[in-house]
Amino acid sequence: MVDNVVIVGGGTAGWMTASYLKAAFADRISVTLVESGKIGTIGVGEATFSDIRHFFEFLDLREEDWMPACNATYKLAVRFQDWRRPGHHFYHPFEQMRSVKGFPLTDWWLQSGPTDRFDKDCFVMASLCDAGRSPRYLNGSLLEQDFVEGAEEPVGLTMSEHQGKTQFPYAYHFEAALLAKYLTGYSTDRGVRHIVDEVEDVRLDERGWIDHVLTKEHGELHGDLFIDCTGFRGMLLNKALEVPFVSYQDTLPNDSAVALQVPLDMKKVGIRPCTTATTRDAGWIWTIPLFGRIGTGYVYAKDYCTPEEAERTLREFVGPEAAEVEANHIRMRIGRSAQSWKNNCVGIGLTSGFVEPLESTGIFFIHHAIEQLVKHFPAADWRPELRDAYNSAVAHVMDGVREFLVVHYLGAGRDDTQYWKDTKTREVPDALAERIERWKVQLPDSENVFPYYHGLPPYSYMCILLGTGAIPLRPSPALSLTDETAAQKEFAAIRDKARHLVDTLPSQYEYFAAMRGA
Ligand code: FAD
C-alpha cells in the first residue's frame, strides 16, 4: 500500500496538496510536509480560475470561513487593457456563451452586434465589472444567472468532468501567503505532520527511486510517495531524478517579473471585481485587488527590458502610493517538466510547470494536478499506466494553456514597440497556425481548439480573438441568410439583465465590509 506521503515545500502547492490529500483520504494515509524556514515562497497576491471553488468545496470550507482570513475578493473576469489600442478594454468573463439557432451569440454579434463592445453585448459580467459589483447580494444569495447554485453535481468530480456543463460566475483573488497559512491550520488539524527544516539531500535507492530526504535537524524522512513542491528549484524531480525541463520560451518569451504589494484605502478606491492585465512596452502589468491592498506586477521579457526599467515602469503605473513599498524581482521558469511524475516522485506547482500569469493559471495547474493525483493514486505495484495517464493529463493542460496565451499575443492589436512587433513574427506552437486560419472563417468551437482538456472552453478563445482585434474574423455566412430577430432579442435581454443587476447588486467593497462585520 502507498500510504506514507512526504511533501517537500510549503508554498501554495505544498499546502493545497496536503489539505486535499487529507480531505480525500483522511487518516488512511500519513502526510508529512517539510518546508524551509529560510527559503521563501513565490506567492505574490493571486488570481484564480472559477473552478477553484471545487477545491474549497472539497475541503468543506465556506467563503465566510476562509475569505476574510486571506483578504480574498471576487473575480468575475480578466480585464484586458490597451491590448487592441490605447484606452481600449475588454473582458474575458466567467460566463457561458449563449447561442441562438445553434450559433454562438458572438457569431451573431459579428453579423450585426448592437454596439462595438462584444463583451457587453454578449455577457452580463462585463457590465458588472465596469460598475464594480459583487456577484452576491448582501444576504449571500448569488446573482440570478444561467448557473443555479446547489443544482450542480456533487463535489469530488474532477474539473474536466464539469466543463461545458455549468459555468460558475466567479473565481477569487487572495493573498497566497495567507491562504498557505490558513491551509497549514486546516492540514495540521487533520493530522498532517509539519516540519520546518532544510532538506539538504535527496537519497535514491538502487533502482533510482527516492528512499528518503535528508533534513538538517530532523534527520531522514522516509516515505512511499514524495511530492516535490519546492517551486522553480525542482529539488527532487528535476535535480535528484534528473527530469528535464521543457521550455516554452520560444513561444512565450516573458521570463521576469517585478511585483509590489500596495496598501490602499479600498473604501475610497473601491474593489474592482476583476484582474486587470494592462500592456506596457515590453510586457504587461497585473492588478489584483484584495481587501486592503492591491497586488501588482510587471511581467516582461528581459531581452527587451532591464529589471531597473521594469521597476520604474511599474512604479510610474502605480503612482505615489507605492513609494515606500519594496519591489520583489522574480525570475520565472516558463514551461513544464518533461514528466511531472517519475518513479515515486510527483512534482506539483512551479516544479511541475508554469506559464506567465496572464490568465491566472498557476493555481489552476496545482488544483488540477492534485485532482489527477487522487484519481491516479498508485497502489503498491506502482502500475506505470496510472503514472502515464497522470503525466499526459498534466502535460495537456499546460500545453493547451500555452497555446491559449500565444493567441493573446498574436491577436493583440498593439504593435508600437519592438517587443509587440516581435509577437507577430515569433514561432507558433504546432497546429496553432492551422487552427488560427480556421478561426478566421469560423469562430472557435469544441472541434477546432486544442483538443485535450486544458480548462479553457471555446468561448474563452472567442473573447480573446474578438477583444484583441488583430486577427480578422467574420460571421458564419449562414447568418446573412437567417432571420436575426431572435439574436437581437437575446442582445436586448442581456442588456436589460445587466442593467437590473448593476442597479440591485452591492459593490464589492460593500459586500466584503458586510461579511467582515465592518
Ligand atoms: P513556492 O511558492 O516557490 O514554494 C516553494 C516551497 O519550497 C517553499 O515553502 C520553500 O521553503 C520550499 N523549499 C524549497 N527548497 C527547499 C528545501 N531545500 N528544503 C525545504 N523546503 C524547501 N498563480 C495564479 O494562479 N494566479 C496568479 O495570479 C499568479 N501570479 C503569479 C505571478 C508570478 C510573478 C509568479 C512567479 C507566479 C504566479 N502564480 C500565479 C503562480 C503561483 O504563485 C504558484 O503557482 C504558486 O505560488 C505555487 O508555488 P509553489 O508552491 O509551487 O512554489
Automatic annotation (TrEMBL):
GO molecular function, one term: oxidoreductase activity
Record-linked InterPro entries: FAD/NAD-bd_sf, Flavin-dep_Halogenase_NPB, Flavin_halogenase, Trp_halogen
Kinase is among the record's keywords: no
Domain of life: Bacteria
Main EC class the enzyme belongs to: oxidoreductase
Keywords, ordered alphabetically: Oxidoreductase
Enzyme Commission number(s) of this protein: 1.14.19.-
PANTHER family with a match to the protein in the record: FAD-BINDING PROTEIN, FLAVIN-DEPENDENT TRYPTOPHAN HALOGENASE
Family: Belongs to the flavin-dependent halogenase family. Bacterial tryptophan halogenase subfamily.
Identification of the protein by name: Tryptophan halogenase family protein
Organism: Amycolatopsis pigmentata
